[in-house]
């Protein structure tokens, strides 16, 4: 098996018995780097903000596993490196940071033995569901106050985002802070309040409409 990349020289010598005279012959040949291939398994269905696991295999074109080698993974332009195991398999668990089509690129820069290689696939991340909760409500001298939290379905705060607050048929908006919490205060007539919390949706999150709630204050 050829193991030295580049120019190789072979010399064969026959020292002979007495019947034939000694002879020596020399020839040269070149061994090129081997080609390789990265195969990426299909990515299972995932939603924005959820973990996504990337599994692939790094082999020579003859099927030999390329073990303990670094493969570069780029997802939507963000790069990281993973190392193959003894079977040439690599696994990367990351977070889906974009709803819609995601571009995944896998590449190998080459070595003394193997040529470089790159490939890519796409996978889709669905919009994530969200929930808005009313954590506290109060009424004081004609003023209604509601405090709440806006999170996605995996528990991450949705910050700096407008929450729709409908009170007695009128619509207002309250903006969440860095922790996904909001406080909204509104003067009302009478001591009865019917409110609904909602969100119109975005490129990342699905729309949400909470349950209509009616409160009567003493």
Keywords:
218 residues, mainly beta, Immunoglobulin-like, 5-stranded mixed β-sheet, 5-stranded antiparallel β-sheet
Number of helices: 0
- What is the first-to-last residue Cα distance? 91 Å
Main beta sheet: 5 strands, mixed
Number of individual domains: 2
> Can you tell me the residue ranges where pLDDT is under 50 for at least 5 consecutive residues?
none
Give me the secondary-structure category.
Answer: mainly beta
Percentage of residues assigned to helices: under 10%
Strand line-up in the sheet with most strands = 4-10-9-6-7
What general outline do the C-alpha atoms trace?
rod-shaped
Indicate the CATH class of the largest domain: Mainly Beta
CATH topology of the largest domain: Immunoglobulin-like
What name goes with the CATH superfamily of the largest domain?
A: Immunoglobulins
Element-by-element helix/strand order:
EEEEEEEEEEEEEEEEEE
Explain what this protein looks like in three dimensions.
The protein is an all-beta fold and 218 residues long. The chain has two domains: 36-126, Immunoglobulin-like, CATH 2.60.40.10; 130-216, Immunoglobulins (Immunoglobulin-like). Helix content is 0%, strand content 58%. The chain has strands at 6-14, 23-31, 36-40, 46-47, 51-60, 70-75, 78-83, 89-95, 100-108, 117-126, 130-140, 143-152, 162-167, 170-175, 181-187, 192-199, 208-209, 213-216. The chain is rod-shaped. The mean pLDDT is 92.
Spell out the blueprint of helices and strands.
Layout lengths: L5 E9 L8 E9 L4 E5 L5 E2 L3 E10 L9 E6 L2 E6 L5 E7 L4 E9 L8 E10 L3 E11 L2 E10 L9 E6 L2 E6 L5 E7 L4 E8 L8 E2 L3 E4 L2
Parallel strand pairs: 4-10
Antiparallel strand pairs: 1-2, 3-5, 5-8, 6-7, 6-9, 9-10, 11-12, 12-15, 13-14, 13-16, 16-17, 16-18
């Amino acid at each position: 098996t050829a193991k030295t990349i580049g120019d190789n020289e072979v010399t064969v010598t026959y020292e002979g018995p007495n019947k034939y005279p000694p002879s020596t012959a020399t020839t040269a040949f070149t061994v090129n780097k081997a080609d390789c291939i990265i195969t990426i398994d299909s990515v299972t269905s995932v939603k924005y903000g959820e973990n996504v696991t990337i599994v692939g295999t790094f082999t020579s074109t003859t099927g030999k596993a390329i073990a303990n080698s670094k493969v570069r993974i780029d997802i939507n332009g963000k790069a990281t490196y993973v190392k193959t195991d003894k079977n040439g398999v690599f696994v990367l668990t990351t977070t889906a940071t974009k709803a819609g089509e995601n571009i995944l690129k896998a590449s190998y820069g080459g070595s003394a033995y193997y040529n470089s290689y790159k490939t890519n696939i796409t996978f889709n991340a669905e919009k994530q569901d969200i929930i808005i909760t009313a954590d506290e409500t109060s009424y004081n001298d004609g003023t209604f106050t509601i405090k709440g939290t806006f999170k996605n379905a995996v528990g991450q705060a949705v910050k700096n985002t407008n929450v729709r607050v409908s009170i007695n048929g009128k619509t207002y908006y309250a903006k969440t802070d860095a922790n996904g919490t909001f406080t909204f205060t509104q003067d009302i007539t009478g001591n009865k309040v019917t409110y609904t919390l909602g969100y119109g949706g975005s490129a990342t999150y699905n729309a949400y409409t909470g349950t209509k709630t009616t409160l009567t204050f003493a």
